[in-house]
Every structure is written in structure tokens, then in C-alpha cells.
Design goal:
- The structure holds two protein chains of two kinds.
- By secondary structure, chain A is mostly beta strands.
- In chain A, about 0% of the residues lie in helices and about 55% in strands.
- Chain A is globular and about 45 Å long.
- Chain B is mainly beta.
- Classes of the chains: A mainly beta, B mainly beta.
- Chains A and B meet through β4 and β5 of A and β10 of B.
């Protein structure tokens, strides 16, 4: 069935360094790829998304890249700050039908001050 | 921006009782809402798709008689955990989409503890 793999499961970086999280999806019909940040005890918050007609998207310190051929997409956070520490989830979806998300397994990011 | 309000944020109930969780889209209408369950340090598992004015669609393995979903209006979906047991203790989260070209907005979640 449809599947999204996410790596790494945990990531520790020094403050100011960059962090990269990678996801691979299986459903070739997927055309929408959001990234969510979840802090402890809270619901996930959308931080950036990308559609299949775009290869890269950037929003200040956050960027997402998409390789449709390889079916993988990545989240890049530059100049990391302690407040970036959280769990990050990628997801894949189609913009037709029920628009269900298939979530990755999550990455726990720790930014060390 | 689009806001999804979820209540209560936490609830403790006794085994055998029922608990209702509300999910409201505050500034937009949602014909579809999703209900997720999340165990500690795990990903979000889709439980069901809530459809306004019709029956919910449940994912494989989710008991529809145990997790009752009602989506009576375009801004409100409710999840009722019936005859709750300790194994139902979890973090329940709803989501809704503000528009055709928007990502889903999630509620703040409800921590259910069954004792």
C-alpha cells in the first residue's frame, strides 16, 4: 500500500548549523507534500509545502526540495535555533479524492545551544 | 489564518464511560475533517474521515461502533469514544482543510486518559 519513509528518526545539530530531513513516497500519484512541526503536547503545524509542479520552495530559513523521478523530498532548515527543536513530519497526498495524508514516521530534531 | 479548535485539550475518564471530543473550524467551512490518533513518540495514524451530512469513512482496523463520528454541520465534527478502556488512552487530533489549495490545519489535540 501507500507508504512514506522518513529519515532520520532523530537528529541533533548545533545551533546555527543546518538540518536536513528526507522522505520517500511510494504512490506515484502523490502530488502534494506538506511538512509539519509538532511540539510536545500540541497538534502539528504546517511549516511549508510543495506541489509536484515545483522542484524547490523556500521560506526564510526553511526550504523543501522535491525529486519526482526518485519520489523523494527533503526539508532543509538553515541557521537552526533552539526553538526549532520539535518533531517534524512529512506527508504525501493527492489533490483529488479524499486528499488523505500519508504521514512519515517523524524526525525528532534537537538543536543544541 | 485558518484555525481549527479542538476541545477538550485533555480529559480523564473512568473505564466504561464515553467521552466526546469536538473539532471546530473557526473561520472556514469544512465538508471533510480527519481524525487521527497518536501514541507517544509515534506518527499520526488516520482513524476516519468525517463527512458533513453523511457517514464517516473508517480506516481498516478502526471500530466504527467504538469511535462514533458525527459531522452535523460544516464547522463541527465530534468523535465519541464509547465504553472507553485504558488501551484507548492516546492523543487524538482532528484536521480540516481551509480551501482547495491549502494544506490541512490541525487542532491542538486531546489527551485522553482512561483509568
Amino acid at each position: 500500500g501507500e507508504n512514506v519513509e522518513q529519515h532520520p528518526s532523530t537528529l541533533s545539530v548545533q545551533e546555527g548549523d543546518s538540518a536536513v530531513i528526507k522522505c520517500t513516497y511510494s504512490d506515484s500519484a502523490s502530488n502534494y507534500f506538506p511538512w509539519y512541526k509538532q511540539e510536545l503536547g500540541k497538534g502539528p503545524q504546517l511549516i511549508i509545502d510543495i506541489r509536484s509542479n515545483v522542484g524547490e520552495k523556500k521560506d526564510q530559513r526553511i526550504a523543501v526540495t522535491l525529486n519526482k523521478t526518485a519520489k523523494h523530498f527533503s526539508l532543509h532548515i538553515t541557521e537552526t535555533q533552539p526553538e526549532d527543536s520539535a518533531v517534524y513530519f512529512c506527508a504525501a497526498s493527492t489533490t483529488s479524492g479524499t486528499y488523505k495524508y500519508i504521514f512519515g514516521t517523524g524526525t525528532r530534531l534537537k538543536v543544541l545551544a | 489564518g485558518a484555525v481549527v479548535s479542538q476541545h477538550p485539550s485533555w480529559v480523564i475518564c473512568k473505564s466504561g464511560t464515553s467521552v466526546k471530543i469536538e473539532c471546530r473550524s473557526l473561520d472556514f467551512q469544512a465538508t471533510t475533517m480527519f481524525w487521527y490518533r497518536q501514541f507517544p513518540k509515534q506518527s499520526l495514524m488516520l482513524m476516519a474521515t468525517s463527512n458533513e451530512g453523511s457517514k464517516a469513512t473508517y480506516e481498516q482496523g478502526v471500530e466504527k461502533d467504538k469511535f462514533l463520528i458525527n459531522h452535523a454541520s460544516l464547522t463541527l465534527s465530534t468523535l465519541t469514544v464509547t465504553s472507553a478502556h485504558p488501551e484507548d488512552s492516546s492523543f487524538y487530533i482532528c484536521s480540516a482543510r481551509p480551501g482547495l489549495f491549502h494544506g490541512y490545519t490541525f487542532g491542538s489535540g486531546t489527551r485522553l486518559t482512561v483509568v
